[in-house]
Design goal:
The protein is 68% helix and 0% strand. The model has no long low-confidence stretch (mean pLDDT 88).
């Protein structure tokens, strides 16, 4: 689908999910090696342009509202799940980030907790 409208949408959706993962990993102020590895593992055979995108996102401030604004209704669950996948959720800062993200994405507490259950994670 490269070079097609579908390819462009797929790339934009992938970028949203990467942004969610990076922001989640940065929520506690530090990206540890496990979080960094979780992000990099999802890059596969990244191009130089894709690596530059990830590096820019690693340097960018956390902005839940901008991420939510850029996320279409059909991607809400996937973006939240990507954020959840990137962290162990072992700090209050990470829990707070995930609550804020779920709220900004318009997910109910039940929807959010359902995603946690589906991924084998405890509810917030």
């Amino acid at each position: 689908t490269e070079g097609t409208a579908l390819g462009q949408v797929s790339e934009e959706n992938a970028k949203l999910m990467i942004r969610a993962m990076i922001q989640s990993a940065k929520a506690d102020g530090v990206i540890d090696e496990e979080e960094r590895a979780a992000i990099l593992d999802h890059l596969g055979d990244a191009t130089e342009e894709e690596i530059a995108f990830v590096e820019a996102e690693l340097d960018a401030p956390v902005d839940v509202q901008a991420l939510a604004r850029d996320t279409g209704a059909q991607m809400r669950n996937q973006v939240y799940s990507a954020a959840l996948m990137a962290v162990e959720v072992d700090t209050e800062a990470e829990r707070s980030y995930l609550r804020s993200l779920a709220q900004a994405l318009g997910l109910s507490d039940d929807e959010r907790d359902g995603l946690h259950a589906a991924m084998g994670r405890p509810p917030l």
